[in-house]
Amino acid sequence: MRIGDLEIDMISDGVVWVDAGGPFGLVPRALYSKTFSPDPSNRVPMSLHVVVVRSDGKTILIDNGLGTKLSPADQERWGLVRPPGGLEAGLARLGLGVDDVDEVINTHLHADHCGGNTISTPSGIEPRFPRATYWVQRIEWAEASHPDARTRSTYFAENFAPLVRTGRMRLLHGETALTSHVSCIPLPGHTRGQQGVRLVSGEWVGLCVADLASYAIHFSQTAWLTAYDVLPLENLATKRLTQAWAIRTGAWIVFPHDPFLPVGQARESNGRLRVEAPAAAAELTDGLPTPTPIRE
């Protein structure tokens, strides 16, 4: 999809099926099931969206899913399905390969967002995108490098440490512009060092919010937080600021895990916030997979 001088596409690294207690935390089932109806095992789908941006002659990936290093047992634990193929199949449909990627932005270093940073080879762990520079907030790298009892199950050094050692990962201090259209901006709360990605072309504005709002319903329902949030109250405060900005600017918001409303705009009416899909966004989202429950 072309917007002025900016080109944007969305592809998928698959869909995972997770216990609803993860994405919905303390939200009662009677409420969240109106939007996400769990399967008989109380699982709901979480898409692994990847945004492909072409700007100023660069091809940029925003996140890259779980990648290819998972064992069969790990894939089963995640409930991972990839009906149209994974990330590389999606790139191929755009006429791209891993060698064409210039920059990779990691919104944060949870495995479902950065597992595709690296691949396992007979020689060891190597960058999946051999020409790319990887971008992450320095504080996120520090947190991931020293996981605690809660985060060690999602921060895996193989996804980022080899890139830092070889100088392939750029550690950022706050807001940073990559191109004239693309900027990384801190969105703390889900993790201390999470960043979003702001996209600008003329008067059009977009924002990949990462797990500030995994689903669109997390954005419209301010108090709905995931069980995965490391700093839930800070996530709440960041969300309030981002909501106000989104309403004011009319920004397109990209939700990283929403299989039903991947891109939306925030509207306020009678003091209530809702998220609706812009009609033009269908060009961006129509190729994304529809979740199909996995069989027991």
Structural summary, described in words:
There is one protein chain. With 296 residues, this protein is α+β, with helices and mostly antiparallel strands. It contains 10 helices and 16 strands. The strands form 3 sheets. A 7-stranded mixed β-sheet has the order 1-2-3-4-5-8-9. Strands 10-11-12-13-14-15-16 form a 7-stranded mixed β-sheet. A hairpin with a 2-residue loop joins strand 1 and strand 2 (6-19). The radius of gyration is 18 Å and the shape is globular.
What's a quick, concise take on this entry?
By secondary structure, this protein is α+β, with helices and mostly antiparallel strands.
Please give the radius of gyration in angstroms. 18 Å
**Strand arrangement, largest sheet?**
1-2-3-4-5-8-9
Largest β-sheet summary: 7 strands, mixed
Helix content range of the residues, please? 10-25%
Number of strands: 16
Number of helices: 10
What percentage of the residues does DSSP assign to strands (E)? 25-35%
Order of helices and strands: EEHHEEHHEHEEEHHEEEEEHHEEEH
Q: Based on helices, strands and strand pairing, what is the structural class? A: alpha+beta
Oligomer: single chain
How far the N terminus sits from the C terminus, by CA atoms, comes to 38 Å
Low-confidence stretches: none
Q: Give the averaged pLDDT, no decimals.
A: 96
